């Protein structure tokens, strides 16, 4: 057993040892040293430095020639080098006992890195003697740029500089070549047939319309998009008022349903060009029309009430419809939602909804739904496809129950899931609900009472709402020319829409 004096002596000796050890470390002279995780990098890359000094430094003062940051007080800084070259690094240390400094000359080597040429032009079709602004979009560090433009007749135009402005005097189609270089590398990119230079008096007629679809009594605004220099325009509008126009961008009224040709002759003092587009304007019946969505690039309403739909979930309008124009593309996770509007609150009145459908998916999918966010027996009307043997279902519901027209495959004129366009029309006339496919009546029946199918809720396209604000049973495929009427369409009107 140790006595108390013995324990006291051991304690004193231990403390003395620790004191002497610390004192020795503090007295060790500072000697600056460091290393880097790499000493050769491409421009834009970073280097991590690590202090390897001895002598218990208290502060670090780094200086990085060519680096970002150029100085640091950290013990292990990270530095980015953006410009090629060789650079020195300096580290100075201090503590209570003094200081030390080390300089490593030409310690970091920064290379140019990989060159990848690219460029763009502010326009690619110009008239002779017009200018084109080119923009270098190359990655890597280039120090020289050589541009060459050559047409099919061997005419060559050259330029230097990073972003040249080039004038093309000779007509033709030019390839564009950019060569970028630095002291370490050279790379070239050629874009064939990139610039088209036209005769100042050449002209090629063309035009578009704000919407190719309208209704009887509605208007279409046309836009001249002719290439070249046009100084006069001569339009002819089959079925339109006016029937002719010399305005560059005319607005035309169409009074009678049908498909109509539009012709434009664009001219200047030396040349003229004529373009004729058959069946370019589509005019649907306007009587009791509530909304018309032709999906010509967006979800706007071409009908008299101008009720635009909100795009929820990324519906696009770049599909190809049966006339080689635009259609809405539904991805199975989005919908078009039309805000509640009196024109779409059918109540107990007659109504019709017509739409073109194209899909290869036979899953249960809601094509459209008026109201109904609170589920079964909520006031609503809807049409969906793909519910097992019920290939198409059209329903009207209220708190008293519902009336359902369910078409099986045997009822239909063909397979609606064949990836082709099919026209589906739902009609409510009094107690009677009817379902038409491709102009043919496939199902019809009477409800026990006239259903109140609307409330203060939205009209959904491509999805079912329920509970309020949440969407499900999404449609996958394309839709086109969705038309809503506040009346019961006749058989003849349904066939007319199908054949339109």
From TrEMBL:
It holds the Pfam family PKD_4. This is PKD domain-containing protein. Keywords: Disulfide bond, Signal. Residues 30-99, 115-197, 203-288 form the PKD domain. The keyword Iron-sulfur does not apply. It comes from the Bacteria. Residues 1-20 form the signal peptide. PANTHER family: CHROMOSOME UNDETERMINED SCAFFOLD_146, WHOLE GENOME SHOTGUN SEQUENCE, OOKINETE PROTEIN, PUTATIVE-RELATED. InterPro entries: ConA-like_dom_sf, Ig-like_fold, LamG-like, PKD/Chitinase_dom, PKD_dom, PKD_dom_sf. The keyword Acetylation does not apply. SUPFAM superfamilies: Concanavalin A-like lectins/glucanases, PKD domain. SMART domains: LamGL, PKD. GO terms for molecular function: hydrolase activity, hydrolyzing O-glycosyl compounds. GO terms for biological process: carbohydrate metabolic process.
């Amino acid at each position: 057993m140790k006595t108390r004096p013995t324990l006291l002596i051991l304690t004193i000796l231990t403390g003395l040892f620790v004191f002497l050890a610390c004192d020795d470390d503090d007295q060790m002279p500072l000697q600056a040293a460091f290393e880097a995780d790499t000493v050769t990098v491409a421009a834009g890359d970073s280097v991590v430095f690590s202090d390897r000094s001895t002598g218990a430094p208290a502060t670090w003062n780094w200086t990085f020639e060519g680096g970002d940051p150029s100085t640091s007080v950290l013990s292990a800084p990270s530095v980015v080098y953006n410009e090629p070259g060789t650079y020195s690094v300096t580290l100075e240390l201090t503590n209570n006992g003094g200081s030390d400094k080390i300089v490593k000359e030409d310690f970091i080597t920064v290379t140019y890195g990989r060159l990848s040429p690219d460029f763009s032009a502010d326009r690619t079709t110009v008239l002779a003697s017009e200018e084109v602004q080119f923009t270098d979009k190359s990655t890597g560090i280039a120090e020289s740029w050589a541009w060459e433009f050559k047409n099919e007749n061997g005419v060559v135009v050259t330029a230097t500089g990073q972003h040249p402005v080039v004038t093309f005097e000779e007509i033709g189609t030019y390839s564009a070549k950019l060569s970028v270089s630095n002291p370490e590398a050279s790379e070239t990119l050629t874009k064939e047939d990139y610039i088209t230079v036209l005769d100042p008096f050449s002209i090629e007629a063309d035009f578009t319309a704000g919407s190719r679809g309208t209704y009887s009594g509605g208007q279409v605004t046309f836009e001249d998009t002719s290439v070249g220099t046009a100084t006069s325009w001569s339009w002819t509008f089959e079925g339109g008022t006016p029937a002719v126009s010399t305005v560059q961008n005319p607005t035309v009224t169409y009074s009678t349903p049908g498909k109509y040709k539009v012709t434009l002759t664009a001219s200047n003092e030396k040349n003229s060009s004529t373009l004729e587009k058959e069946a370019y304007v589509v005019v649907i019946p306007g009587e009791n029309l509530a909304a018309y969505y032709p999906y010509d690039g967006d979800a706007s309403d071409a009908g008299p009430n101008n009720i635009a739909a909100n795009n929820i979930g990324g519906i696009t309008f770049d599909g190809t419809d049966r006339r080689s124009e635009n259609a809405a593309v539904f991805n199975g996770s989005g919908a078009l939602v039309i805000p509640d509007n009196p024109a779409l609150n059918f109540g107990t009145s007659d109504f019709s909804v017509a739409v073109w459908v194209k899909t290869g998916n036979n899953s249960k999918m809601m094509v459209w739904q008026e109201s109904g966010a609170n589920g079964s027996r909520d006031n609503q009307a809807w049409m969906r496809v793909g519910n097992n043997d019920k290939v198409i279902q059209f329903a009207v519901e209220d708190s008293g129950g519902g009336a359902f027209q369910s078409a099986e495959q045997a009822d239909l004129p063909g397979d609606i899931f064949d990836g082709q366009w099919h026209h589906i029309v739902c009609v409510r006339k009094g107690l009677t609900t009817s379902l038409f496919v491709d102009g043919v009546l496939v199902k019809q029946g009477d409800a026990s009472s006239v259903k109140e199918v609307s409330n203060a809720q939205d009209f959904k396209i491509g999805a079912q709402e329920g509970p309020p604000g949440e969407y499900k049973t999404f449609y996958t495929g394309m839709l086109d020319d969705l038309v809503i009427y506040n009346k019961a369409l006749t058989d003849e009107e349904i066939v007319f829409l199908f054949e339109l």
